[in-house]
Amino acid sequence: MAYVDGFVLPLPTSNIESYRAMATTCGAIWREHGALQYRECIADDVKPGKLTSFPQSVNLQPGETVVFSWIVYASRAHRDEVNDKVMKDPRMADFMKGTDMPFDGKRMIYGGFDMFLDL
Q1: Segment (H or E) for 18
Q2: What SUPFAM superfamilies would the database entry show (predicted)?
Q3: N or C end of the chain: smaller count of CB under 10 Å?
Q4: In angstroms, rounded to a whole number, what is the distance separating the alpha carbons of residues 85 and 75?
């Protein structure tokens, strides 16, 4: 079954278009190197919770919104192969520096997940 890398991050609303440009470039690179899907979603209905919520998970600040993203691969091994190629791609060099990111990478949450149900 497929493997998914998932991401949740805080994005200043003033940076939505610069993030869209960055994500468009990154998505093309991931797909070129073999990712099956690349999705970026912006918050529409994500209210703060009493104990947990998407806004709380990234310590959302005024003027920010939540981005929820995922990349789909055929397997964990496929993900590792694709990510190895992506990280070596010279088009990723500026993004990897992290100095001019449109969001606070320290508050981004990410991880890899085995898909166990696909309906």
Answers
A1: helix 16-32
A2: Dimeric alpha+beta barrel (SSF54909)
A3: C
A4: 15
